TrEMBL record:
InterPro entries: FAD-bd_PCMH, FAD-bd_PCMH-like_sf, FAD-bd_PCMH_sub2, FAD-linked_Oxase-like_C, Oxid_FAD_bind_N. PANTHER family: D-LACTATE DEHYDROGENASE (PTHR11748), GLYCOLATE OXIDASE SUBUNIT GLCE (PTHR11748:SF103). Gene3D superfamilies: 3.30.465.10. Residues 1-173 form the FAD-binding PCMH-type domain. PROSITE patterns: FAD_PCMH (PS51387). This is 2-hydroxy-acid oxidase. One of its GO terms (molecular function) is catalytic activity. The keyword Flavoprotein applies. Keywords: FAD, Flavoprotein. Signal peptide: none annotated. It comes from Salibaculum griseiflavum.
Amino acid sequence: MTPASEAELSEAIRAAEGPLRIVGGGTRPIGTPVEGATLSTDALTGIELYEPGALTLVVKSGTPVAAVEAALEAEGQRLPFEPIDHRPLLGTKNVPTIGGIVATNASGPRRIAVGACRDFMLGVRFVDGRGTILKNGGRVMKNVTGYDLVKLMAGSYGTLGILTEVALKVLPDVDDAATVTLSGLSDVDAVRAMSAALGSPFEVSGAAHDPEAGATYLRIEGFATSVAYRAGRISDLLAQFGTADVTHGKAATAETWAAIRDVTDFAGRDGDVWRLSVKPSDAPALVAKSGAEAVRYDWGGGLVWLLMPEGADLRAKLGTFRGHATLIRASDDTRRALPVFQPENPVVARLSEGLRAKFDPRGILNPGVMG
């Protein structure tokens, strides 16, 4: 089913007699596999409203991310949360949609500096499991009244409702960028260096570490003179970790950080891929316990991508820890056998069940996708 309007979507949900597998562009098959009739938002496309002067954008959920980015680029603006493109990592071939970005709260390396997708959402329209059309928030930044269903929908993976429209805050693009690279650091020292950089006044917008390449990356963005100054000061600040190499240029920096954002190093490599969210200082010790075949650090060490043997249970290897482990890429069998998302404590689990029962009383929207 591919409804061409919000009204058609509402009718399709009302008429559904069993589970529905909700998809946008189909580029992010994350979660426990769902058995059911496929319902796609692919036909709900178009930019409804774009006011560059107000830094606001209203777009239908099935609109390709590329179309949104092209419209923003023409006005010298961008999506500040730098959404990850999962296609290289997951081997998918379709077109990512803005609804898929919101439904998974997909956010890239810049999250540590400006926030996640959910932090830039102003309003939503969606259809719940009864087929009721709901809206929350607004189309302008000053509209902050009412219950915050906007942020609730971010990262809900289509289990509470199917998005039809999203209002977002956008930001101006930058004039220039540079990458400061340190070489040969251990994971522990890399986290220390990234923490020092992020805690400095020099506005680092990305901090990542690649143990295989022996490289620690820091991104600086802004006006050209400011980027040059701050890159130099960061290099001086981190002199105890070795001599830094600075690569200037917006295009070169974008290429480097797109690869970090999309974890392209793991694309095509055998094994399962896990995503670990932890306190940065805890990350190296957890990585050492994991038995991972390869590792990439992002968000200053707060996000760790791990390439694991197929079928391996990362949580069992780590034992009790403070954080979340999410299985991003694995076979259908493994994603049925292991919880894809970090199991919730009983109190949170009851709240989650209550929310799903309220918004989807028949349990037909992506049932079981989040466990």
